[in-house]
Amino acid sequence: MGENLISGDGWAVATVDDLGDGPGFRKVRRALGVTEFGVNAIVLPEGYQTGRHFHDRQQELYFVHRGEIEFAFGDGTTHRLPAGGFARVDAATVRSLRNVGEGEAIYVCVGGQGGYVERDGHTADG
């Protein structure tokens, strides 16, 4: 792992580059010890298209970190999202992604099941 992957008591930090090289999956969950939801960063080479897929249970949230990615959904619609774009996709919805920009694109995908945890934050200083 990269030199900036650091962890302490109850926390871990890293950059995308710390989690691997080249195209493909960067296993964020494993590297940072995430246990409550799935999360990966994926590097797509220029022009690359993922396979069509869906899930049994987990809803996914995609965040385009770098580049421009076209999302194609099972209903035949497509949507291009630039860096900073989000897409929510329900488990059973068929989807594929394609890097339509110049150079590598990077997206982060968070998946989970079971519902939202209501606000449970507290200030640490009283």
Automatic annotation (TrEMBL):
Query: Which UniProt keywords are given for this protein, alphabetically ordered?
Result: Metal-binding
**Protein origin, superkingdom:** Bacteria
- Is-annotated flag, keyword Hydrolase? no
Name all Cupin type-2 domain ranges. 43-110
Name the UniProt record assigns to this protein: Cupin type-2 domain-containing protein
Question: What sections of the sequence does the record tag as coiled-coil?
Answer: none
Identify the species of origin. Capillimicrobium parvum
UniProt GO molecular function: metal ion binding
Q: Which PANTHER family does this chain map to?
A: OXALATE-BINDING PROTEIN
Does the record bear Metal-binding in its keywords?
yes
